[in-house]
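Quick one - first record:
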Amino acid sequence: MASKGNFSTQTFLNIVKEAIRGGVTTVQLREKELSAKEFYDLALSLKRLCDEKKIPLIINDRLDIALAIDAYGVHLGQDDLPLKEARKILSKKKIIGLSTKTKEQIDEAYKNGAYYVGCGAIYKSHTKDSSVIGLDSFKNLCKHIKNEKYKLKTVAIGGINEDKIKDFKDIQTDALAFSSAIMQSKNPYKTCIKIKKELQTFIKTPIN
């Protein structure tokens, strides 16, 4: 998950570029403070970079921005436009992810056409204002998806850094989401290389 924060646009894009060079497979743009115009301008610049590098770009919350820049997909929260309605608007070629914390929310996500579910927060996070569900709950949610034979990919979100990757080795998840661990790194490229090396020991397929 990428957020511009206090960075200049160019610095932000450079960080993402280095993260992609280091092995990031999907970028999600998450901006809570920008105006619609600012969000659009930033998303458009990031889309150009992701297209150049052949990396999928997912827009957080804002279906209108995702449509405007022809993003790869959109990620919705429980308080955003209902997934069922978003699917009516968004091309079937685009993916929709949904933030979830419970089995019931996952059941709804599958029923209404989600491609993946982001589960968390796993740990307390400085960038994601969300209650913590913890590793055990996340493990149970992953088991629920497998037991129900849902064709849903899972992404662990919230407070994950390179030191916590080992916590997920016995959990059947498809991906881990990183935000501050990369965006605040002094060397995003090296950080992503390290993360990728750790992930390859137990995660074989990226969410895209």
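second record:
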Amino acid sequence: MPKILIKAENLYKSFGSTPVVSNMSFEVYEGEFLTMLGPSGCGKTTTLRMIAGFVNPDRGVLELDGQDITGVPANRRAVNTVFQNYVLFPNLSVRENIGYGLMVRKTEKKEMKKRVDEMLELFKLELFADRKPSQLSGGQQQRVAIARSLINRPRVLLLDEPLAALDLQLRKHMQFELKELQRQFGTTYIYVTHNQEEALTMSDRIIVMNEGTIEQTGTPQEVYNSPRTVFTAKFLGESNILPAAASGISIPDDQKNNCMVSIRPEFFHITSDGRADLPLSGEITEVTFLGNIYRIGVRLSTGQTIYVLEQKKNLTEHMHVSVSYDREKLTFVSQ
């Protein structure tokens, strides 16, 4: 079983009379890539800042490697943080930025040069070693910020929306770079984002957050394929939420309190016979081209609109269709 590196118990933080994090408890395993995913204002960045030591919890306990660090100052924790805006020193070169932490620690010059050169090579920044941050692209600046954070060999690297300022193509490229670096170093990553694709692409586990609490924790496959709440189903990807009775199947005894079902658009299939006796049938309201597939809206006889992802099959608006689905892909969810 993997070693628990960070343990949070009943973390609570409010600003004024407003709770931001409400009694959160979770564990982070050594060497894993854990992502905190949720919308703006859900408390994920505040949680990250409590782990970093920039914010003190009102209540609760934080442990690192079995030691209570709840009141330990940020500069005495074996963690480093990479922010969205990178916070590079504009007057220092790339080499000086990367080596800044070693300089503060008064590392011997020969050792400092050796370690900075290793980072420059690893991050493919050798040709830019003498440039200032303003002479670099966004992706290069990000690599400098991460190299500077890793050179001190922290136990944990905290990343707060580090890809948000990058364009789509570069962001996708950096997702794979970050994951590969994490594998190479074996560093524990705690990553904060509101971007579902980033979470699914890079994470070993995901903590889905909503209004200061944890909705669900699991692997990307678990939280996507088996959401437990309506919020998780809707926030992580797209999902159709229907009354359980509309699914046409019996509700197991252990799901009686969960009266809704979640079905992903890719698990629906449309036929054009328009048979009203099938569990789901209705009228096509929209057909949207997404490149390699179509997103098709179908207004059911109940008035609810569901969305289907599949090949077009000459489907047009106002056409009456029947909708089938794989019952194994249906998930019961709670409000």
